[in-house]
Each structure stands twice: as structure tokens, then as C-alpha cells.
Specification:
Protein name: Dipeptidase
Helix content: 40-55%
Radius of gyration: 20 Å
Oligomer: single chain
Keywords: Dipeptidase, Hydrolase, Protease
CATH architecture: Alpha-Beta Barrel
EC number: 3.4.13.19
Shape: globular
InterPro entries: Metal_Hydrolase (IPR032466), Pept_M19 (IPR008257)
Order of helices and strands: HHHEHHEHEHEEHEEEHEHEHEHHEHHH
CATH topology: TIM Barrel
GO molecular function: dipeptidase activity
Largest sheet: 4 strands, parallel
Number of domains: 1
Low-confidence stretches: 1-29
């Protein structure tokens, strides 16, 4: 029998949208940051000092897919065919990166499940083959451990929602294999009309296992419903400010404000198409998101190795200090930069894990099937 929570339980019981988890279980104490640079130094010098203490957590990289077309590569020594080898990650003071498992083809059903598993297998093999520079990570603690060992933490995801094959069992299996972010687009249960009942159950099960919802490119009804259903923070892995550049994935101010109220994370992409052709344009988007959503709700998304064009002075992952220098020159204080670069991603990872811990005490694994909820 399917686990039909909506039919079998009242609104006050487990897994319901309108039942908050105990606040003490999901609220994370704010980070405290001490100044680490000379306020009289040049912005680029200050940027390097701040990033030494609070490196960049990059919200989106297409490297696994880009490597598929190369007959041979060595990320440790340097690889000119990609944007993000280990030397350039270190030069850019990147401490963590999310590797996308999105599928360029319109795979669906079993093909999408298999293709995602193949990409995940490749990504793990790449990390294992470059363990002097890279380390896999599944949690905020493992991200910090990798950084303390001088490695770049690699988190797997986002993957497309089609990778689930409409199965909550596959969702749990992918999480066990290391997937940490899922994009809620491109499926029948998360489309232009919003989330279906099965879609809401997917979000609740993601909360229960600790998988984070990515809402870039999702429809407005999906975004609003996920913000209502999810007990854990959501992120937008590739979304800038629509008020500055009307791209389909960029967020209007009303949604940015909702993201701020929900303590989600809008990660501004370093692409000319979404954010503009110069480093100043990217900084304008970061300024705007910080103002509308709040400094604790803005992050960075390199979007390197995805085939897009990057702004001037931000050609590859070595260029992050230039962007941070631009922000410091505009008056961002070190606390705000530390949150932008590192702290906000760590908060989202911690809160997702805490939410999962609470949910697992209150709710067994869901056995709901799409044909029972949406049929």
C-alpha cells in the first residue's frame, strides 16, 4: 500500500506542510567572523586574505560532463580543455564545488536514471583519481574537513528530477550514493502548474533524507509551493536578479524577498548571459540580491565548464579574487563576503542535515507511488 500521508493523517500529524519542526532542531547559530585583512590594503590584497580564511563554495560546475569528451586529462597538473582544474581552483581560492549531474539530452524515465548513475560513477572516479587535490563531501562537516586537509571538497549535484524515475526508492538510493542536490524541473509532478501531490511527497522525502531542492529554472508555482512545503532551506544554483537582467532563470524581486524570508540561497551565476559581460555587472547582481533577500541568502555559482560565456576578468575559476575585490571596493564588509563565499552554503548544508535528523525521528521512509497520488 502507498503511504498516503495527506489522506491518512490530520494536518497536525507528521510530514504536513503546516506543522513546523521544533525550531531548536533546525535553527543554526549564526557564524561569527573576525577581520582578517588590513582595511588600508588594496582590494585585491584584502580579497586574497579574506578568501584564505573563507574560501569560495562554488554552487555549480559542469566539469563531469565536460570531461566525457576528453580522451585523457590530468586535473592535478592542469587541463587547458576545461575551466576548473586543481591549480586554477587553488589559485581562485575555491574550497568547495558542486558538480552538476544534469543531462544535456532530454532523457526521461529509466534512461535518465541510468544516465545519472553513470555520471555519478564518473564523478566519483574523477575525484578518486585526483585525491591529492579533490575530496568527496556529503555534509558541512566533510566540506570543512576537506578544506582543513588542503583539498577542494566536491559535492555531487544538482541532478535533474527525471533522475528519480518517479520513484522515492530511487531518490533514497541516489542520496545513499552521494547525491545532495536535486533540481525540481522537467517532470510531470513539478511543472508549469506547480507541484502535484506526488511532487509534495518528493519534497518531504528529500527533507527526510537530507537532499536539498534546487529551484533554478523552476516555474513560479513550483517555487512558491516548495518554499511552503520544505522544512529545509532551498537553493537556486543558477539565478541572478531579474530586475537587472530578464533571463528566465533569474528571480524577480518578489521571489527574492520570499527566498530571504525562507532563508534559502540564491547563487548568482558568473555567466554573461544571465549576469552581464563584466565583473561589475556580476557585482551589481550580488548587490541586488543582498539588498532584497539579505546577506545570508546570496552565494556564488561559477557555472564553469557548461559551455557558456563568462564575464570579462572571470574567465575561469582562478578569477574569484577579482570578483571579491570588486565587492570589497564597493563597501562590502568582511562578514558579508565570508557569508557570500563560504558561510551561506555551510549553513544550508547544516540545516538540511538537522532537518533530516528531526524528520527521521517522526516519519518512516515514504512508500508513496506516483500512480496512487497523481493517478
Amino acid at each position: 500500500m502507498a503511504d498516503l500521508q495527506d489522506d491518512l493523517h490530520t494536518a497536525a500529524e507528521v510530514g504536513r506542510v503546516d506543522e513546523p519542526y521544533p525550531q531548536e532542531a533546525v535553527v543554526v547559530a549564526p557564524e561569527t567572523y573576525e577581520p582578517v585583512s588590513d582595511p588600508d590594503a588594496e582590494p585585491l590584497t584584502r580579497a586574497h586574505a579574506v578568501l584564505t580564511a573563507h574560501p569560495v563554495a562554488d554552487g555549480y560546475s559542469g566539469l563531469p560532463w565536460a570531461l566525457r569528451r576528453l580522451p585523457w586529462y590530468d586535473l592535478d597538473l592542469g587541463e587547458s580543455a576545461v575551466d576548473a582544474d586543481v591549480p586554477r581552483l587553488r589559485k581562485g581560492q575555491v574550497g568547495a564545488v558542486f558538480w552538476s549531474l544534469h543531462l544535456p539530452e532530454a532523457d526521461d524515465g529509466g534512461r535518465a536514471v541510468g544516465a545519472t548513475l553513470a555520471q555519478l560513477d564518473l564523478a566519483k572516479a574523477v575525484v578518486a583519481a585526483h585525491d591529492e587535490g579533490l575530496r568527496p563531501a556529503r555534509s558541512a562537516g566533510e566540506v570543512a574537513d576537506a578544506r582543513n586537509c588542503g583539498r577542494v571538497a566536491v559535492l555531487f549535484g544538482p541532478a535533474g528530477a527525471a533522475a528519480l524515475g518517479d520513484s522515492l526508492g530511487v531518490l533514497r538510493s541516489l542520496h545513499t550514493l552521494g547525491l545532495r542536490v536535486l533540481t525540481l524541473t522537467g517532470v510531470s509532478w513539478a511543472g508549469a502548474a506547480g507541484l502535484t501531490r506526488f511532487g509534495e511527497e518528493v519534497v518531504r522525502e528529500m527533507n527526510r533524507v537530507g537532499m536539498i531542492a534546487n529551484l533554478s529554472y523552476a516555474s513560479d508555482p513550483v517555487i512558491r509551493r516548495v518554499l511552503a512545503v520544505s522544512k529545509a532551506p532551498v537553493l537556486f544554483s543558477r539565478s541572478a536578479a531579474h530586475a537587472l537582467r530578464p533571463h528566465p532563470a533569474n528571480l524577480p524581486d518578489e521571489l527574492l524577498a520570499e527566498v530571504g524570508r525562507a532563508k534559502g540561497l540564491c547563487m548568482v551565476p558568473l555567466t554573461a548571459e544571465q549576469s552581464g559581460p563584466t565583473v561589475r555587472d556580476v557585482a551589481d547582481h550580488l548587490d541586488h540580491v543582498r539588498t532584497v533577500a539579505g546577506p545570508e541568502c546570496v552565494g556564488l555559482s561559477g557555472t564553469y565548464d557548461t559551455g557558456g560565456t563568462h564575464p570579462q576578468e572571470l574567465a575561469d575559476t582562478s578569477c574569484y579574487p577579482r570578483l571579491i575585490a570588486e565587492l570589497l571596493g564597493r563597501g562590502w564588509d568582511e562578514t558579508e563576503v565570508a557569508l557570500l563565499a563560504w558561510g551561506n552554503v555551510q549553513r544550508v548544508l547544516r540545516e538540511a542535515r538537522f532537518t533530516a535528523h528531526v524528520a527521521q525521528q517522526r516519519r518512516p521512509p515514504s512508500t508513496a507511488a506516483i500512480e496512487d497520488l497523481d493517478g
